[in-house]
Write a structure and sequence with these properties.
This protein is α/β, with parallel strands linked by helices. The protein is built from five helices and four strands, in the order βαβαβαβαα. It has a four-stranded parallel beta sheet with strand order 2-1-3-4, sandwiched between helices. The longest helix is centred in the first third of the chain and has 12 residues, at 17-28. The chain is elongated and about 50 Å long. It starts with a strand and ends in an 8-residue tail after the last helix.
Amino acid sequence: MPRVLYLHGFASAPSSRKAQYFREQLDQRGIDIEIPHLDEGNFKGLTLSGQLRVIERAANGAPVIVIGSSMGGYLAALYAARHPEVERVILMAPAFNFYDRWMEMLQPEELELWRREGELPVFHY
């Protein structure tokens, strides 16, 4: 059976409750799961291309099953579309249209702060 990669969401981490739940459930069934830290310890410098490189290194060209939640779901879809060695993809509430959703969510003063300062405070779990 191929390894399983679990891809966490934006502002989340491998230590999240959901990631650990999957680890526990799959470990009990003898299934290997890897949960890469998609921001590599640099949340402020997070990019989609950087996260895709993390996934590529974790998969290492081998057959994998990819489970992704939220932003991890979006990344799983992007990765699987470009890598035929992905045998299965499980998407949970994938964050398609992430930018548009952020624009709808932000208040005008938050958007102005982001434009003025070049960054926006985000709680990172």
